[in-house]
Specification:
Order of helices and strands: EHEHEHEHEEHEHEHH
Oligomer: single chain
Number of helices: 8
Helix content: 25-40%
Shape: globular
Strand order of the largest sheet: 1-8-7-6-5-4-3-2
Radius of gyration: 16 Å
Structural class: alpha/beta
Distance between the termini: 15 Å
Length: 225
């Protein structure tokens, strides 16, 4: 199955004092808005929470790709689905029963995603792929924006892509961390088809044009240009 690349700018890299404007700046270009939720427990940082997501949802029609870097996702994740998130991703390291939570999220109206952090092997989770809509492979250590891309983590992407193809699964392979014009082709070649980009988009003079350039690079490598 041939898929077009998904570009999901991360608002973690945007100007928080102008969140509504920053999201509208990528309308017509971005496929998803990536929303990094950090709780100062699972990761050291503290960022956006549910009330901001609920408010921001009213400012744009772009689908929200919510990435929960939090403890106890079973308690909090359904609220993001109910708030209108298109996709809600929780971390394997923080969840005892990923399949049960994926079912809960789908019942609440969103897609379900599982994130794998830098130091976590992907192999134990390959059997769960049929129960998921997205698997997010971190290409940095979760918890901070602006980190450098780690190409050695693309082996996990390749492993996931092989399993998807063998079993003919319908699931997005998303990568998050250091994705920019000089790294997105490597990630696409490894098998990713959804790409989170923060600084590469919001650090550009024209965020929408930056999104279009990233998509073109990924599409060419995926053979769908």
């Amino acid at each position: 199955m041939t898929r077009s690349p998904i570009i999901a700018p991360s608002i973690l890299a945007s100007d928080f004092s102008r969140l509504g404007e920053e999201v509208r700046a990528i309308e017509g270009a971005a496929d998803w808005v990536h929303v990094d939720v950090m709780d100062n427990h699972f990761v050291p940082n503290l960022t956006l929470g549910l009330p901001i997501v609920q408010s921001l949802r009213k400012a744009t029609t772009i689908p929200f790709d919510v990435h929960l870097m939090i403890t106890d996702p079973e308690r909090w994740a359904p609220g993001y689905a109910e708030a209108g998130a298109y996709n809600v991703t929780f971390h394997a390291e923080a969840c005892e029963d990923p399949v049960a939570l994926a079912k809960t999220l789908r019942a609440a109206g969103s897609k379900a995603g599982l994130a794998i952090d830098r130091d976590t092997p992907v192999e134990p989770y390959l059997e769960l792929l049929p129960y998921l809509d997205t698997i997010l492979i971190m290409t940095i250590k979760a918890g901070f924006g602006g980190q450098a891309f780690m190409p050695e983590l693309l082996g996990k992407v390749r492993d996931v892509r092989r399993r998807i193809e063998v079993n003919d699964l319908e699931i997005r392979v998303e990568v998050d961390g250091g994705i920019a014009s000089d790294t997105i082709e490597q990630a696409a070649e490894a098998g990713a088809d959804a790409f989170v980009a923060g600084t590469a988009v919001y650090g550009a003079a024209d965020p929408a044009e930056a999104v279009r350039k990233l998509r073109a690079l990924a599409a060419a490598k995926m053979g769908v240009a």
